[in-house]
Each structure stands twice: as C-alpha cells, then as structure tokens.
Specification:
single chain, mainly alpha, 6 helices
Amino acid sequence: MDSSIMTLKYTDQATKQMLQNLVDRKIKFERLKQFHILLLWISVFYSFTCLYLMYNHILKPYSYSFAHIFSIIVGENRHLFFLFIAIAAFGATKVLYEKKEKAEKEYHELRCEIIDRSKDLWKNEAWISRNVIFEMMKAKYNINLYHESK
C-alpha cells in the first residue's frame, strides 16, 4: 500500500484499501492508454511506410497491368509478410483499445462507488476532514473524488 494512503487519519483500513485499489486501477488505465497510443502510432507509420515502398517498387513500375501487380505481391512471400504484419498491428491496436476501455470502465465505476459511499466511509469528525483526503488524491494521483463526471 502506498505510504501516503497508509498515513491517512480518520480513515479505516477498508477505506484505505479501496483508495489503494482506485490508485492501482488508475495506474493500469494510464499505462494501457499510453501503450495503446504508442502501438497505434507505430501501426500507422509502419503501414504508411509499407504502402509507400510498395507504391515505389511495385505499383509505379508495373502500373500498366493489375494482374502483374497482383502476381508480384502474391508471388513474393516478403510482400505478404509485410502486409500481414501491418494487419496484425492494427488488430493488436484494436485488442489493446478494448482492454483500455475495460480498464477505464473499472476505474470509473470504483471512483463513482467511493463518491457514492463517501457518507458511509467517513462519518462524524472524519466527514469534516475528508476534504484533506480528496485534495491529496487530486494532487498526488490526479483522481477527482468530488464529482462523478469524467
């Protein structure tokens, strides 16, 4: 458990664990988001590079016959290999996007649950000091516990 969460006053162990789970899900979501963007850019640049090279080495010299272009692309394994890598990169990007969306949904649901249950989690004098906890979560982890909107 993170040291700043462990040292919170007026917070019981279950609430601290919920806050730690929220931080873990936020980190997971941010990591998947960054990896998705990186893989998307790699896929786009790789595809444009492949298309540019195919245009210059196959389409330009043999533009007089579609059948000849098709036979060159299918006839050499390396051309098909590069095309399949581009397709696989976009497929991996799609899978990673779905994982990112699932992680965001889990993070947002837990954040909304903490917001909804804040009256039960912090009672009496802890209710007055919950503002300190919310400010710490916003400042250190960029997690807004004041409102449910994203």
